[in-house]
Task: structure prediction
Amino acid sequence: MSFSSAVLSHLAATHRANPDAEVSGPELQHALGLDAGAVRRLVADLARQGLVEWDPHLTNIWIRITDKGLAVVEDRSLGY
Result:
């Protein structure tokens, strides 16, 4: 599993538990064993694809998966 897939999977699991929840950058760092720069780059790439929402100007990044991101996770789990 790529780190991008791992980010989406983590966000999707959080969303399933609470659709209004957001995940912090430090939480992703801890969950995936990445540094802050790597998380920022991954999230920026996913945001460009429309798979997550975030505010890159905040010091403590908060990320939320989009409907498009959820669909990607569901398609992958079905083997597409």
Observations:
- The CA atoms of residues 53 and 64 lie 5 Å apart.
- The mean pLDDT is 89.
- Strands lie at 23-24, 52-54, 62-65.
- The longest strand covers residues 62-65.
